[in-house]
Specification:
With 85 residues, the protein is mainly alpha-helical. It has helices at 2-28, 33-57. Residues 7-82 form the Protein CotJB domain.
């Protein structure tokens, strides 16, 4: 199961990078419809991937960015940044 967790985190990182890259591009090319469509597509994928990850492994972030199942899951380890790749 640990392999699937790492693979899911890597996919989240890949999609998140695409969102950041497209965000920066759109800052200088705001009328590029194709880039905006790609950005929206990647943003949706990112939301779904994070939701899927959190439903299996618990919250990725805290302070109101992700809901938690009972019992409070934020204290469960390893936290996403502690996983060895």
């Amino acid at each position: 199961m640990e392999k699937e967790r790492v693979e899911m985190l890597r996919r989240i990182q890949e999609v998140e990078f695409a969102c950041i890259d497209l965000n920066l591009y759109l800052d200088t090319h705001p009328t590029d419809k194709r880039a905006l469509m790609d950005y929206n597509s990647y943003t949706y994928q990112l939301m779904m991937l994070k939701k899927q990850y959190e439903s299996i492994y618990g919250p990725m972030t805290n302070f109101g960015y992700a809901q938690s199942q009972y019992p409070w899951a934020w204290i469960e380890d390893p936290w996403p940044w502690e996983i060895e790749y």
